[in-house]
């Protein structure tokens, strides 16, 4: 056990801190979404990205994901497992770099390298985030390790792979390092050209072959990124809130926040060890070259942090060794104070980052308070662009009855006309919806008198709304509500000739002599009206009550059902003249609908035979059979079985011989 801790103790420390970050903040931002959820064809983004990194992480994470899915854990645990795997990959490359530090600079420098890394928030926090920058960081760590080891060609090859596949901007680091190797005669130009060109061709062929299949077109993702960002210089058009920074922002803001105490120590380390400048100058050149682009983010230069930490560790080791000397004693006290300040700042920064995913927490809370197990219908949630960018991914979604929509470019006024049970968005109020709760997010840092002197200010950023009619099922606008029930119910509305026929029959019955009166004819009108009313009540009102909460429910997209044919009207129209003709023309058919003791007839059996015979036969073969592809069942409500557009409706069909059983 002691030997194990001696070999892997440092890795366990770094891994434990990274794991805490993952568990406390498991959600992802929009820039991580590509490597998290495979919806690239639906939401392609500004520029394409490679799938190779996601495939590697998925390969190693798949056993964990399978076990979690088999045990019934929510999908968010699969995301946590994938981030754990990514963190292990990145930290293993950092371990290789750290071992080379120990070999070249000694155990004490390695210990300070570990201490500085643990006191910094961003490196370990980002090490588990599925960003292209982090995938490239793994290869850069391997390049740094081979650089310290003296394998210069291997170092260049790793940087080429990172440049061609994951981040084209790594070329800004590759250039200064290759130039230094050439100037110091560590490599020869011809041999470098031979190895590097071959590596670049292999890497380009790999990414083109894989990504062209996934994107369904010929594409080299990082070349398109390079063209968009560097040649067209349009990176600031799609940056975070389209923000741009001054040319010195990396040196005056990003590096001080990411390195903390290591920032001044890294500058001091250049002066204390003559080996350090050859390692640090190419990295500083990388940051300088990157400063030319107007859009700047800390993650863009995250590759520079490990090497700058090495320089800082060299300075910290020298200060610690000479701590008993007068001048060095003061430097040691200042360094210890900076260590404490760095630790406090890291905790403070983590608290801010924890509150930086408000929509993820909002959706989780919605799932907890809505109790969908007691709801038979579907719960539709619309997620706006702001919420999708700040914590929500497909891993946050739950199974049935939850359904989600991320439809973009939808104005607030349109939401009330759509079939959404809940809204998760940035608007405090939406017409037709009531606000259930709001979720606060990090807003700013504020200085104040008293303790603590620095506080995190939060404000409501995401709001969750519920449809006001969600509990009123009779008036709920379920898909298909566009059809007016009154427009499709009743032969009087559909066929004026039948109305005239009914009026004529009623008139003839009234004017006929008593012995000639046939109650069968007015009963035909009565029965048909009864069927019309029955259709309206059971097929529309009852369906509107049952469909949103029952098992036979409409699923899929919101559709306008104006094209759905109400075939019970057509069947009533067809049955009515056939019954009139049978009553008037068939021998001994009068009084067929009544039970007359004097005639000793069996009207119920005759009526059943008549209805199951010519009426249904004619109706089915002359009308229903040619229209089964577009019509619905006469007596059963429409059931959409899949998520289709209104032009691709799939409906249930009941054979007409069985339609009147109910």
From TrEMBL:
It is found in: Endoplasmic reticulum membrane. It is an enzyme of class 2 (transferase). It comes from Brassica napus (Rape). This is Mannosyltransferase. InterPro entries: GPI_mannosylTrfase. The chain crosses the membrane at residues 12-30, 51-70, 76-97, 109-127, 158-183, 195-215, 247-269, 276-293, 299-320, 332-354. The keyword Transmembrane applies. Its EC number is 2.4.1.-. Keywords: Endoplasmic reticulum, Glycosyltransferase, Membrane, Transferase, Transmembrane, Transmembrane helix. It is a multi-pass membrane protein. Belongs to the glycosyltransferase 22 family.
């Amino acid at each position: 056990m002691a030997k194990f801790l001696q070999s892997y103790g440092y890795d366990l420390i770094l891994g434990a801190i990274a794991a805490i970050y993952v568990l406390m903040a498991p959600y992802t931002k929009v820039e991580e979404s590509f490597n998290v959820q495979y919806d690239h064809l639906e939401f392609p983004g500004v520029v394409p990205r490679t799938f190779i990194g996601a495939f590697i992480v998925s390969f190693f994470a798949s056993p964990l994901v399978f076990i979690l899915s088999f045990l019934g854990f929510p999908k968010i645990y699969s995301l946590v497992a994938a981030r754990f795997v990514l963190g292990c990959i990145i930290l293993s490359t950092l371990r290789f770099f750290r071992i080379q530090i120990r070999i070249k600079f000694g155990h004490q420098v390695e210990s300070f390298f570990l201490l500085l890394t643990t006191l910094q928030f961003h490196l370990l926090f980002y090490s588990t985030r599925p960003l292209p920058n982090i995938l490239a960081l793994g290869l850069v760590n391997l390049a740094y390790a081979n650089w310290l080891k003296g394998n210069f060609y291997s170092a260049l090859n790793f940087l080429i792979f990172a440049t061609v596949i994951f981040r084209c901007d790594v070329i800004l680091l590759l250039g200064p390092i290759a130039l230094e190797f050439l100037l110091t005669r560590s490599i020869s130009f011809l041999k470098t050209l031979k190895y590097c060109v071959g590596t670049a061709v292999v890497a380009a062929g790999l990414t083109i072959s894989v990504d062209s299949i996934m994107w369904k077109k010929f594409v080299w993702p990082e070349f398109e990124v390079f063209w968009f960002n560097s040649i067209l210089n349009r990176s600031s058009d799609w940056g975070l809130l389209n923000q741009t920074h001054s040319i010195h922002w990396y040196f005056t803001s990003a590096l001080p926040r990411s390195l903390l105490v290591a920032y001044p120590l890294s500058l001091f380390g250049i002066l204390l060890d003559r080996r350090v400048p050859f390692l640090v100058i190419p990295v500083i050149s990388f940051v300088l070259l990157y400063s030319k682009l107007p859009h700047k983010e800390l993650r863009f230069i995250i590759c520079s942090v490990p090497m700058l930490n090495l320089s800082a560790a060299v300075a910290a080791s020298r200060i610690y060794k000479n701590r008993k000397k007068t001048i060095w004693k003061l430097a040691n006290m200042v360094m210890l104070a900076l260590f404490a300040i760095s630790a406090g700042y890291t905790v403070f920064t983590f608290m801010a980052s924890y509150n930086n995913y408000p929509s993820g927490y909002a959706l989780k809370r919605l799932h907890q308070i809505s109790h969908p197990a007691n709801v038979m219908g579907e719960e539709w949630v619309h997620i706006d662009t702001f919420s999708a960018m700040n914590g929500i991914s497909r891993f946050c979604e739950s199974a049935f009855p939850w359904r989600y929509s991320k439809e973009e470019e939808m104005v607030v006024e349109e939401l009330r006309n759509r079939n959404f049970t809940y809204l998760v968005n940035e608007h405090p109020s939406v017409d037709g919806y009531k606000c259930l709760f709001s979720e606060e997010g990090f807003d700013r840092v504020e200085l104040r008198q008293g303790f603590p002197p620095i506080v995190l200010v939060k404000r409501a950023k995401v709001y969750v709304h519920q449809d006001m009619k969600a509990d009123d099922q009779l008036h709920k606008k379920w898909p298909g509500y566009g059809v007016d029930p009154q427009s499709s119910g009743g032969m009087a509305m559909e066929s004026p000739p039948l109305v005239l026929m009914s009026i004529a029959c009623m008139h003839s019955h009234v004017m006929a002599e008593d012995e000639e009166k046939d109650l069968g004819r007015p009963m035909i009108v009565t029965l048909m009206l009864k069927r019309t009313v029955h259709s309206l009540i059971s097929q529309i009102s009852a369906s509107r009550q049952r469909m949103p909460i029952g098992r036979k429910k409409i699923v899929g997209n919101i559709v306008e059902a104006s094209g759905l044919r109400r075939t019970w009207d057509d069947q009533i129209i067809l049955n009515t003249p056939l019954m009139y003709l049978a009553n008037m023309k068939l021998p001994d058919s009068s009084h067929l609908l009544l039970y007359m003791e004097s005639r000793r007839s069996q009207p119920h059996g005759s009526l059943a035979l008549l209805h199951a015979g010519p009426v249904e036969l004619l109706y089915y073969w002359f009308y229903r059979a040619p229209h089964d592809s577009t019509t619905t069942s006469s007596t059963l409500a429409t059931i959409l079985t899949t998520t289709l557009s209104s032009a691709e409706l799939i409906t249930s069909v009941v054979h007409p011989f069985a339609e009147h059983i109910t």
